Amino acid sequence: MQEKELETLVAERWRMALTLTGVMLAIYLGFVLLVAYAKELMGRQIVPGLSLGILLGALVIVSAWVLNWIYTRWANTYYDERVRRLLGR
Amino acid sequence: MPTTALGQPNAVSILFFFLFIAITLGITYWAARRTKTTEHFYAAGRSITGFQNGLALAGDYMSAASFLGIAGLVALSGFDGLLYSIGFLVGWPVVMFLIAEPLRNLGKYTFADVVAYRLRQVPVRSAAAISTLTVVALYLIAQMVGAGNLIKLLFGLPYEAAVVLVGVVMILYVLFGGMVATTWVQIVKAVLLLGGALLLALLVLARFGLNPIALFHEAALKYGDQVLAPGKLVANPIDTVSLGLALMLGTAGLPHILMRFYTVPDAKAARTSVTWATLFIGFFYLLTFVIGFGAMVLVGPDPIKAIDKGGNMAAPLLAEALGGTPFLGFIAAVAFATILAVVAGLTLSGAAALSHDLWVNVIRGGHAPEAEQLRVARMATLVLGALAILLGIAFKGQNVAFTVGLAFAIAASGNLPAIVYSVFWRGFTTAGAVAAILVGTLSAVVLIYLSPTIQVDILKHAAPIFPLKNPGIVSIPLGFLAGWLVSLATREREAEEKYLEVERRLHLGGGD
């Protein structure tokens, strides 16, 4: 088995994992900072009953699903295939 | 006092309660006959599918605090309560991207397996056992005290009797059925909790034309626009960020969650588990938006506070308002199942730290016969079960809400840095691992002790020594920093040489 190929694969995998972790962290911290420092804005109602805070909060949960889906798709199709080839199976 | 059947034993709740106990003990009997080896006891023979493990993870993770606590917080303070719903969920993608697959490929039963893989066993496992047992004990306190109070409120049973009952049933699950029984109890609980919460939310929404926005609008009309906006709970912005960080990063370091990844056959199944777990848990937390505001509008904050100041009875009271005593009985039984499934997972992970990390790998140098390992694991279960009962009774009447936050802070500050470094960094050393775990754990504990939560609320001092209620924003960086600096100061050639092996195993799988 080729060390070089493994190293490339490792680098690619961690780039993917760290990017997605960074995106999740940024989305969530962005939300928390808005809650902490822009209370008035978050309380503003877009339509009566739906404040920006509630909408963004629900979207944070949805974004977690979306990021998971992106990762799983990438790993199940691209990454697993590369591993299989590296193992020569 | 509003009229409610809460606090009196009612036929329906007792029926559901015994039905749940009978079914789960039946599962335990079935599981006990399949629990012959440590691999079964700790890891269910690695035969759980990704979907099943996703449900079990949801059952392991969603505690009574998630269900009753968040519903109550939202019912009493509106939007602020939702911060917990969201914070408890966003850690799951982190588990997915950084933790689940490396853990499955490198470890056997505990997260210390991963950290100690290329380092010296004794110091690393001892440190990891300290942080694991601290997290487990703190989490158990919250669950057992919650169980005692809840069952007293729900069924009218005396506090001590309730704590002993929960402790004994949980010991039966883990002692005889190990991870197989624990997994299925958690799956049954997750299905009950998701089903119960969905039904509750649908009954609420049926009153508002199935439109959650109409419900929120009604809440704002009745109690003012501020219930839809950030309020008192987030008065200090730095504290809010600190809490947010600990909730997010703590999930990825909770020993009872990490242990579940060893129950699936391979890394791909570990991945599938997190996908399902995140879907189930996220869906549940979205339901808490509706249940919380539903309780606010349909029951009202004052009647809820009249029963329990913390608001923990919001969801049961809402169930009673919508479906009468039978539905109250069902939701009460669901809350009980919720606690049992969580304490079983906690006890099992604590037992693994005591027996697999401390006994087998520290005291016996990694060589202990299979039969002895299994015997020690069962003894550890008994010890931890007894400890859980004692802690529950010792902390009766105390405000222990802070212990879950502290457990998350320790998991994020002590366990997570050690796992991340051991997977990503060639230059990580034994001393660095011990430093990360101990500095992270200790700083979280000390800072909580110096915080307003203990100094002002419990010890009644005029001012706290440390201004924040949540230590995460300081203790998490401290854990990472300690691991980094100490590793730089102590090179470990053997660990560096073994890193290639770690990388290969981590990415390509292998071993069991």
TrEMBL record, chain A:
Keyword Transmembrane helix appears in the UniProt entry: yes
GO CC entries: plasma membrane
TM ranges: 16-38, 50-71
Pfam families tied to this protein: DUF485
InterPro entries: DUF485, Inner_membrane_assoc
Keyword terms, alphabetized: Membrane, Transmembrane, Transmembrane helix
Domain of life: Bacteria
Name used for this protein in its record: Uncharacterized membrane protein, DUF485 family
Organism per entry: Thermus arciformis
From TrEMBL, chain B:
Record NCBIfam families: sss (TIGR00813)
Residues in the signal sequence: none
InterPro entries xrefs: Na/Glc_symporter_sf, Na/solute_symporter, Na/solute_symporter_CS, Sodium:Solute_Symporter
Primary location: membrane
Keyword Membrane recorded: yes
Keyword field: Cell inner membrane, Cell membrane, Ion transport, Membrane, Sodium, Sodium transport, Symport, Transmembrane, Transmembrane helix, Transport
TM spans (from-to): 12-32, 53-76, 82-101, 122-142, 162-184, 191-210, 241-262, 274-299, 327-355, 376-395, 401-424, 431-452, 472-490
Record's keyword annotation contains Nucleotidyltransferase: no
UniProt protein name: Cation/acetate symporter ActP
Membrane topology classification: Multi-pass membrane protein
A GO CC annotation given for this chain: plasma membrane
Protein's cellular compartments: Cell inner membrane
GO MF entries: acetate transmembrane transporter activity; symporter activity
Top-level division of the source organism's lineage: Bacteria
Single Gene Ontology BP annotation: plasma membrane acetate transport
Organism: Thermus arciformis
Pfam family, one: SSF
Family indicated by similarity: Belongs to the sodium:solute symporter (SSF) (TC 2.A.21) family.
